[in-house]
Amino acid sequence: MELGKFKLGGTQLKQSDIDRGKVLTLAQTPDLEYAWDDGVAIGRYLEELKNGKIIARKCNKCGRIMIPPRMFCELCWRATDEWVYCKDTGTVNTYSLCHVNWDASRIPEGEPLHLPALIHIDGASPGMGILHVLGEVDPDRIKIGMKVKAVWKKPGEREGSITDIMHFKPLRAARKKSKKKKSGGR
Amino acid sequence: MSQKVAIVGAGITKFVRRAQETGKELAWQASKMALDSCGLSLKDIDSVSLGTAPDAFDGVHMKGEYLSDGSGGWRKPYMRQFVGGGTGVFAPIHGWMHVASGMFDTCLVVCSEKMSTCYPHPQGAFLTIFDHTTEQALDPTLIWIFALEYNRYMETYGLTKRDIAPVSVKNKKNAMDHPSAQLPMDITVDDVLNSELLAWPVNRLDISPASDGAAAIVLAGEHAAKRITDKPVWIDGVGWNLDTAYWATRDLSYPRYVEKAARMAYDMAGIKEPRREIEIAEPYDPFTYKELHHMEGLLLADRGEAPQLLADGVTQRDGDRPMCPSGGALGVGNPISATGLMKVIEIFLQLRGEAEKRQVPGNPTCGLAQAWGDLMQVGTVVVMRR
Ligand SMILES: [Zn+2]
Fold it and tell me: Is residue B168 part of a domain?
């Protein structure tokens, strides 16, 4: 069989088809609300964030100190053993300079970019990282391997959320200097 | 297993940004074409395996049920499969199980996707794949994951964007010969590097589009296959594997789950030297770097070596190891589940010598298709021979 011998389905619509009423569209926004229980391990994690601390959970069989904490070790398939406080510093494992918002809309020219990064947290096992964002840094000077430190909200403003850490900032140097935009070819 | 399984027919729609047809109409078009292509009718089909991605795209809850009539599933043993972007190769693996087990002699495998329903862009639906408590509060977009993985891949092997961008040039060019293609283009590496920067290092032309479309294949057991066609293409190996969903904790430079899936499929197919024996492949390429990343996971290149093979022309259609001769997700389009099945169909057509202008030289006898998905930690692989 050759695809070229068949008349293929799938008819491309254009915006003008919709504007001219060639296609009728029914639009609806589902009205759904959820309340996620945070569970045993993440519950404690959030509670400690409110205290300005990062906590992990240790498995005494494989020895891993895991973040985010979990009540069972998915590798040893057994209950984890103890709580371990980590530092609020870490290392940038990878990062991006993002011009797009969560809904695919674009950040207006001149406004700050999103700076997501994976940060390996000091005190957890090597390779144990979390997703967060960087701040107080010149985007052009972010480097993989850079040491960073959490910047916390004021104690009274924390609510037990990952956003109690506003962002991670460089431990030294690489401070924000210019608003120069990143070019595509770096 | 109790019998060998062959692909005996295939169907596909055009991949478009927004289709007039509903998801079930697309499913019907692809399914009908698949049956017509091998002279069967729905009454000849014993079971149906449907693949479709998150319900949130369509805003239809229980999409498996919704698509069941267009997929020919009524009054038949019918199952929906779903592993995110890996679904398009997972659905045929499930169909293979139905037939290989001896339970059924034929199975219709259908993958249909309608991403345009979620507007202005389905990106918002992707938000919900992040952990609701520890990640969603950071307002992530799906592109973050890929940008972070892309950057890590470059850092680990000392690569640049210029080493990776030619994947887009190759695949979009290949797509110019595919009748379903949504984004066929003749472009240069500079066009890719100068396209809109979305999330460094990811530019617009590094990313496959959101698409509507459907694909279908007919599977048959050994005896049935030989009755139906004189050109069966055998599924000789299947593999799938899932890594940890703590994605921030994985080594992002290497897709270990793809390697595990590939080894499972290679063992089943008796493949000892994949680089010599796999003559043609369709690795999943929703982003430029993913084709290279996946070639390495599939053991078709050493770690960090895939960009050099690309630069040397090895992965071109007329190269020693053609990759994505269809045009891939980057060129043909990416209606999530249908993309993986489109890749299976491409290898089916290539091994039968029926890929028209896309045909690779040298009469290949063995190829593979691979997809990848969930929270970027599932690998699905099928190995095919004629
Ligand atoms: Zn353990």
Answer: no
